[in-house]
Amino acid sequence: MGAPSSWPHRRSDGSPGDFPAVAFAVCLDCGVDIDGWRERLLPVRNGTLAVTERGELALDVEREGACPECGSGSAEIRVEARRQLCS
To answer: Residues 27-71: pLDDT tens digits?
Structure first.
């Protein structure tokens, strides 16, 4: 059972925030955000829970060619509250 949708998100300084939670993936070798990560990494057959530098949970995934930038097979799927930038 997941967390109730009414739980507030927290900013990196620990104060309550209302930023939307977004799912994304990063390469563990070069650090680039992986575009099209769902197509590249899902379904996850084997993953390891990890803690990000912000203290949030993530899932480390090994998949050949996960990163389109450097070709690495190591990626991390994260779900974090992120401020949406207006363009």
So the answer is: 999 999 999 999 999 999 889 999 988 888 899 999 999 999 999
- Please tell me whether residue 39 adopts helix, strand or coil conformation: helix
Question: What is the pTM assigned to this prediction?
Answer: 0.70
Non-local CB neighbours of 80 within 8 Å, separated by 6+ positions: 21, 22, 24, 52, 54, 56
CA dist 44 and 60 (Å) reads 10
Q: Where are the alpha helices (DSSP H) in 1-85?
A: 37-41
- Computed from CA positions of residues 57, 59, 60, 64, in that sequence, does the dihedral angle turn out positive or negative? negative
Q: Tally the C-alpha atoms within 13 A of residue 31's C-alpha that lie toward its C-beta.
A: 2
